[in-house]
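User: Please predict the structure of the protein below. I'd like the answer in C-alpha cell form so I can feed it into my own downstream comparison script.

Assistant: Understood. Taking the following sequence of 282 residues as input:
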Amino acid sequence: MRLHLPATAAVVAAMCLAGTTRAQQPQQPKTDLSLRVAVAPFAVLDAKSGKLTSTVAIVLGVREPAPAERMTERLDVQVRAFTHRGEARGMTTQQAIVTLPAANDDEVTFEVLSELRLKPGLYELRLAATSERLGKAGSVSADVEVPDFTRAPVALSGVLLESTPGLIVAARDALASIAPVVPTTLRDFTLTHRAIAFLTVYQGGKSAISPVKMKARVLDAMNHAVAEDTSMLVASQFGSPRAADYQYQLPLTHLAPGQYLLRLEATLGTAIARREIRFTFR
C-alpha cells in the first residue's frame, strides 16, 4: 500500500521563472522549448529502513515541432529543489528517450515522469530540459509543499489526473510505486477523453482505523455544484501503513463547455481534509 503526503497537484505553464540560489541573481527562463509541469508530494515506505520517506511526483510536459518522419528524441532533464531562502535541498537528472511518430500536426506533446525525494517543507522546484533533436532548452518552475501529516486524523495526498487517451509518455513506469495511474499535465478535456482523479487518504496517529466519508464535487465558474458524489472508505480498505486509495471519474458527459473546479473532501469525525484541482471541458 502506498502512503502519500497531501498537497494539491499544480500545473505550471512554461512562463514560470527559473529562480535563483543564494549565490545567483535572478535570471530569465529559457523559453526556446515549451514546458509545463504538474507536481504532487507523496510519502512512501523506505524498503530498507521501513520508515516513511517524502517524495514529489513530477510530470513534465514538452511541446515541440512535430517531426516529418518517425524519430527518437532524447531529452536531458534536471530538477532542483530550493527553499524559500534559496537554499538547495535536492537534485535529480535523467535522460528521457521517447519515440515521436510522424505527424501532420504542427506540434507534438509528450510527457516525462520522475520523482525527487524531499523532506517535509516548502520548496520551489526548478526544471530545465534540453532537446537533442532540436538543440533547444527550456525551463519551468513550480512551488510545492511537502507537509508531515502523519499525526493528522485524516489527510489527503496531492491529486493526480490520468487521461485516456493520453499523451506520449517517456519513463512510463517511473511513478508506478507511488500511484496506480499514469499522471498527466493535461487539464483540457473533451468527450473523447476519460479522465480520472486519483489520491490517497490516510489516517495518522495510532488510534483505531475508522471509516472515512469521501465527497467529490465539481463546481462551475459561478461556484455552482454541477456534479456530486459521496462514498465511504471502510476500515478494511486501509492497509499498512494506514492508507487507502481513492479515485473519481470526471463526469465529462454531463458537463457544458467551460472551466471547472474539482473539490475532494475526506471527513473523519470532526476532521476534514480537502484538495482541489482545476480543469477545462471543451
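That's the full C-alpha cell string. Confidence is low (pLDDT under 50) at residues 1-10, 13-27.
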